[in-house]
């Protein structure tokens, strides 16, 4: 079986995009893991699968599979690459498309200057919505937010939690370059308080509209950028009274921009989306 693909990246977060519009794509978790391998496969943080919508009022459906072969709910950098892909391939002439994802419908827009803005989600903070079980954890209030004392190794890390279509736990650090992302990221991701696992964000605040960020992504590991992680960090920072919209997010792979008007409002992510190369792989 030969599989055609497009390799794309958004701020260094890289993807293999697969077209399943004409026929369903039925790959096993092991096949996805092999394709994601950077030495023996194509190499990718995630796979973006373009499909037909269930509702004809929408333009496409969209599935995301992580490098470990597990399917996830959302990916902000991937969504930007998605709209660039369908426009470059001539699959639509619309500047804005409505795309079905596992938790609902999102709007993706490519501007005339080539920048791409993604309607991410209305952030949710209730523990049951993450999902998150805070029983037995210490808590403290900061601004309009509740922080939770999460035991991580020998330390207690104070995290804010948010769901942006997928779960996030965000902590503020003094220096993101010195943050123990590789050591503590896996411990937070798999912490028993998060029954569906979680994306672990490490945020350094430069000023009220500028942060630096590293994210250990669920099922992937640390990536050069995480779109929903950027939004999660910003909305948690705004809830805590530390940030104000709009916020520039400096990731290791590039710069993203996040807008959020506050509780109950949609959050938006803007940034680059680039086609790297196209190819065909023998499965």
UniProtKB/TrEMBL annotation:
Binding site for substrate: 13, 46, 66, 76-77, 166, 199, 217-218, 227-228
Enzyme class: isomerase
Compartments where found: Cytoplasm
Domain of life assignment: Bacteria
Site residues, Could be important to modulate the pK values of the two catalytic cysteine residues: 168, 217
UniProt GO molecular function: diaminopimelate epimerase activity
Family assignment from sequence similarity: Belongs to the diaminopimelate epimerase family.
Organism: Piscinibacterium candidicorallinum
Identification of the protein by name: Diaminopimelate epimerase
